[in-house]
Design goal:
Structural class: mainly alpha
Distance between the termini: 14 Å
Shape: globular
Number of domains: 2
Length: 255
């Protein structure tokens, strides 16, 4: 059985390396035309990421304490996200604008978008996110967009920290955990999504926390049941906002 496990692990690792290599090469090929046609803001954003990576790597290899390294890398993550929020267009548009308006209609008593051929009636998986937007608008009619951005900033920073914890749990290496923290801090999608009013911002922390608790449960003997229960709860909460929990369950089964 152990031999079969080893073969399966090697095959999966090889497949993942091939897939990731294809993604990286394709991303680079797509990036060049974008850079050629890009404006000053995009170039500045890329420079900030590159400088942050170099500065973060210097922090990792510095002589400061381990906790100070973690704190410094998290500060880098927060700084880049705030910089992006302050300079990006932060008004809901496209589908997000429709969801925002549905939330506004909901608190005024208009439920038409939830029924029949209404937007949420046709896409019911967005219901929880619309209710979240409605709750923020109800609690803060004047500054609801600002509050949503602050929540996204907090959750985005939480995601970075959970990525660090998952890496530490998997590899038992503080150096690799710090590198993962740095990568997550400067990973463009985790930065740019901070200003987008999408359900992924709310779902991602729950999914990653579920994965972390699941890994802890695998290793634990005394608290295995509790950790698995907490992992299940986090998975269910994440699924409310973005219904892809079945993919995570398949991954748990394979693991």
């Amino acid at each position: 059985m152990n031999k079969l496990d080893n073969v399966f692990t090697k095959v999966m690792n090889t497949m993942l390396k091939i897939i990731l290599s294809i993604i990286i090469i394709a991303s680079i090929c797509i990036l060049f035309p974008i850079l050629i046609d890009s404006n000053v803001g995009t170039i500045v954003f890329l420079l900030v990421i590159i400088i942050s990576m170099l500065f973060g790597y210097k922090i990792i290899n510095s002589n400061i304490s381990y906790k100070q390294k973690i704190f410094s890398l998290i500060l880098i993550s927060i700084f880049i996200k705030i910089l992006w929020i302050l300079n990006a267009d932060n008004t809901p548009n496209s589908d997000f604008k429709v969801m925002y308006e549905c939330g506004k209609n909901f608190i005024s008593g208009d439920l038409s978008c939830f029924k029949g051929i209404g937007y949420i009636g046709r896409f019911p998986h967005l219901t929880i996110h619309v209710l979240y937007m409605a709750a923020i608008q109800y609690l803060s009619p004047a500054s609801n967009l600002l509050i949503m951005k602050i929540i996204s900033l907090f959750l985005g920073t939480t995601v970075v920290l959970i990525v660090y914890l998952i890496t530490l749990e998997l590899f038992k290496s503080k150096e690799k955990a710090l590198l993962s923290l740095l990568i997550a801090s400067v990973f463009p999608p985790l930065i740019t999504y901070t200003s987008v009013f999408c359900s992924e911002n709310l779902a991602m922390p729950f999914y990653l926390l579920s994965i972390y608790l699941f890994l802890r449960g695998i290793e634990s003997d005394k608290y295995k049941f509790r950790l698995f229960c907490l992992s299940s709860i986090c998975l269910a909460l994440g699924n409310l906002f973005r219904m892809v929990a079945i993919i995570v369950l398949i991954a748990y089964t394979l693991y």
